[in-house]
């Protein structure tokens, strides 16, 4: 197996390496998830003819309002010049520039030099995580990355890098850089993270690209009300049909029927009675005390979109299950994190989201705890919740392991199997290592490590047989220790060829075996570690320059596959090597363990 398996994943780097210029936003902007026609700009109104010149007169510094009644000279509010040539200010006229200084002082405004909600104190990377990497290069990588990626742990690392408060790279506007990061988070299924990122930029600094992505983030979190503070600035900056319709929604949510009604009626005339307009009209009706009763039919709808999903969930409109099959996995992950949906609706999606790192083991456990407390005891999800509770609380260790085994065995498919390992991780960590459970040790260890519980897993080191999968996982998970080449060979001789090659590639990448042994073992396993291309050179250069953010982004580019079978040992070697070099060795270890677990 060669690096050619990742040729699709490396397209972004190859384009940049070939010297292709970075396209402008209008040529290659983020793909919209809105329905056709919603991105069409609304023509700007024709400019009013200029007034005829008149002789200069003393008067106010701003034109009087067109709807203001005439005022007699000498009365309060007169705009005619007073003594000394100074005109008194007309009542009702507001100096918004002055007011803005009081509403948001300069010191409170957030700079675009560094953008992101997470600092190193809150799990973010350092501000210099992208170093002096070219902004156009980073933008192209993010824009063309095919998300989500194969690895749960790489997804977690990528989310951390994208949310970090980092220096804006040269050649990019800070708001645009945040928009590109948020757009990638949305495609990863990280709706809440994307929302946090767009809200880390002051709306006054939004660009047309940021307005577009911010709308997508609010739709992905099923919160159309989150668009309301952006509506007027968006209409002033980048008016299009999306924001005209959002204006109607926000007027409805503000219980202003005199404004909402004409706006939604105008949208109906322009766009007809499509499901997109009907969903907006339903939200408007909810905001004005149900004065508009709307029925939404899905029979003629052939696909779901962010607009349809976000408005349907926000308005309590049922979405047919068939519609979820018309979208990518991202929408299922949004479904998992939508608190307004029922617990049963979220359960299956939450297990899928856990395999992608969007749901933690603890969050998944908590969700099933709520299901057990609130749902009908006869439903299947409550049975899962009860088995999970027993895995924590049963009287004997044998019974606890039996309940975990039941949860693992009933899973259908590789993703479901992995999600059940994540679900039971903390229950497995509570067990005392015992030879009595040796037959289940591989899965117990895999379960603990799926949630990063390496210390608990390493207690089983003396229980698992040498050469087993559990033993190999512990070799990879133990931090910082050099590994005897005989141990690596023992695993390679016992495991299947793919897992053996993955373990050797990861051990070599993390520097856990000597260079000579690493090269010999990789050659013997068919790992073409010395093959070079634009991606291998780029990730090595980023590691040499100590740019962890760039390394994580390039690692994601090298792992653009929905399944682990699409990830080569060569890619794993370069990813673990670069992550270890920039101090992210914990992620390197968990990614390597994940490879053994999921293949």
| Inertia-based shape | globular
The secondary structure category is mainly alpha
User: What's the overall average pLDDT, rounded?
Assistant: 85
CATH architectural group of the domain at 146-336: Alpha Horseshoe
CATH topology grouping of the domain at 146-336: Serine Threonine Protein Phosphatase 5, Tetratricopeptide repeat
β-strand amount: under 5%
Instruction: Give the CATH class of the domain at 146-336.
Output: Mainly Alpha
Largest sheet composition: 2 strands, antiparallel
Task: Report on the architecture of this protein.
With 599 residues, the protein is mainly alpha-helical. Among the domains are: 146-336, Serine Threonine Protein Phosphatase 5, Tetratricopeptide repeat (Alpha Horseshoe); 361-461, no CATH class. The protein contains 30 helices and 2 strands. Strands 1-2 form a two-stranded antiparallel ribbon. Mean pLDDT is 85; it is low at 1-92.
